[in-house]
Amino acid sequence: MGSMSDGKKKDKDDEAKVTIWGAEWCPPCHAVKRFLDSHKIAYKYVDVDKDRESGIKIAEKTGWTSIPIINIGEEYIVGFDIAKLNEALRAAKLV
Known about the structure:
The chain is α+β, with helices and mostly antiparallel strands. The protein has one domain: 3-Layer(aba) Sandwich (Glutaredoxin). Strands 2-1-3-4 form a four-stranded mixed beta sheet, sandwiched between helices. A hairpin with a 2-residue loop joins β3 and β4. The chain is globular, with a radius of gyration of 12 Å. The N and C termini lie far apart (29 Å). The N terminus is likely disordered.
Protein backbone atom coordinates (compact mmCIF):
# COMPACT_ATOMS: atom_id res chain seq x y z
CA MET A 1 0.00 0.00 0.00
CA GLY A 2 3.01 2.31 0.01
CA SER A 3 2.58 5.58 -1.80
CA MET A 4 5.32 7.64 -3.35
CA SER A 5 5.33 9.96 -0.32
CA ASP A 6 5.77 7.00 2.06
CA GLY A 7 8.92 5.89 0.22
CA LYS A 8 10.25 9.44 0.09
CA LYS A 9 9.75 9.92 3.81
CA LYS A 10 11.40 6.64 4.83
CA ASP A 11 14.67 7.79 3.29
CA LYS A 12 14.58 10.93 5.42
CA ASP A 13 13.50 9.45 8.78
CA ASP A 14 16.84 10.13 10.43
CA GLU A 15 16.87 13.81 9.44
CA ALA A 16 13.15 14.47 9.87
CA LYS A 17 12.33 17.10 12.48
CA VAL A 18 8.66 16.11 12.39
CA THR A 19 7.14 12.85 13.63
CA ILE A 20 3.52 11.79 13.23
CA TRP A 21 1.95 8.98 15.25
CA GLY A 22 -1.17 7.81 13.46
CA ALA A 23 -3.03 4.92 11.83
CA GLU A 24 -4.21 3.99 8.36
CA TRP A 25 -7.89 4.19 9.39
CA CYS A 26 -7.50 7.77 10.72
CA PRO A 27 -8.64 10.52 8.27
CA PRO A 28 -6.96 13.37 10.25
CA CYS A 29 -3.68 11.42 10.12
CA HIS A 30 -3.87 11.36 6.31
CA ALA A 31 -4.73 15.08 6.32
CA VAL A 32 -1.58 15.89 8.32
CA LYS A 33 0.56 13.85 5.91
CA ARG A 34 -0.99 15.61 2.88
CA PHE A 35 -0.45 19.01 4.56
CA LEU A 36 3.24 18.30 5.22
CA ASP A 37 3.74 16.78 1.76
CA SER A 38 2.22 19.91 0.18
CA HIS A 39 4.80 22.02 2.05
CA LYS A 40 7.61 19.57 1.16
CA ILE A 41 8.39 18.94 4.82
CA ALA A 42 10.09 15.63 5.64
CA TYR A 43 8.54 13.60 8.43
CA LYS A 44 8.74 10.25 10.12
CA TYR A 45 5.41 8.39 10.25
CA VAL A 46 4.75 5.87 13.03
CA ASP A 47 1.72 3.63 12.49
CA VAL A 48 0.56 2.91 16.05
CA ASP A 49 -1.37 -0.17 14.91
CA LYS A 50 1.88 -1.70 13.62
CA ASP A 51 4.18 -0.27 16.33
CA ARG A 52 2.06 -0.45 19.46
CA GLU A 53 5.05 0.11 21.75
CA SER A 54 5.72 3.52 20.17
CA GLY A 55 2.03 4.35 20.45
CA ILE A 56 2.03 3.52 24.15
CA LYS A 57 5.23 5.53 24.74
CA ILE A 58 3.90 8.69 23.06
CA ALA A 59 0.57 8.36 24.91
CA GLU A 60 2.45 8.09 28.21
CA LYS A 61 4.69 11.04 27.32
CA THR A 62 1.90 13.39 26.19
CA GLY A 63 -1.07 12.08 28.15
CA TRP A 64 -3.03 11.92 24.87
CA THR A 65 -4.72 8.81 23.52
CA SER A 66 -6.10 10.45 20.35
CA ILE A 67 -4.29 10.51 17.03
CA PRO A 68 -2.65 12.01 15.14
CA ILE A 69 -0.01 13.18 17.56
CA ILE A 70 2.55 15.36 15.82
CA ASN A 71 5.97 16.32 17.20
CA ILE A 72 7.62 19.35 15.60
CA GLY A 73 10.82 20.46 17.31
CA GLU A 74 9.89 20.78 20.99
CA GLU A 75 6.14 21.07 20.30
CA TYR A 76 3.53 18.31 20.48
CA ILE A 77 0.15 18.73 18.77
CA VAL A 78 -2.85 16.42 18.84
CA GLY A 79 -5.22 16.39 15.88
CA PHE A 80 -5.11 18.18 12.55
CA ASP A 81 -4.94 21.82 13.66
CA ILE A 82 -3.56 23.91 10.79
CA ALA A 83 -2.95 27.01 12.93
CA LYS A 84 -0.95 25.05 15.52
CA LEU A 85 0.92 23.16 12.81
CA ASN A 86 1.92 26.37 11.03
CA GLU A 87 2.98 27.99 14.30
CA ALA A 88 5.12 24.99 15.30
CA LEU A 89 6.64 24.73 11.80
CA ARG A 90 7.60 28.42 11.91
CA ALA A 91 9.05 28.05 15.42
CA ALA A 92 11.15 25.11 14.22
CA LYS A 93 12.20 27.14 11.15
CA LEU A 94 10.79 24.53 8.76
CA VAL A 95 8.74 27.02 6.73
